[in-house]
Specification:
76 residues; mainly beta; SH3 type barrels; globular
Amino acid sequence: MEGELRRVKVRLRMASGMVYVGRIYVEEKRRLTDVLNDERMFLAMTEVEETDNPRKIPFLAIHKGAIESVCIIPEA
């Protein structure tokens, strides 16, 4: 059974140079690195913003192999 989920706001820089800012859901007892390193090939993001596009994307599936860096953005 899955645990409670918490939202983590992150900035992803892709190998293509594209940057996305959005939220990833992580189980309460897991770390973001656990999600990044699990067996799933895609990472689900919500409330996504692209650096060069002002509109919000409700859902985006990101191929983990295309991620260059990840930065957690603290929320107030």
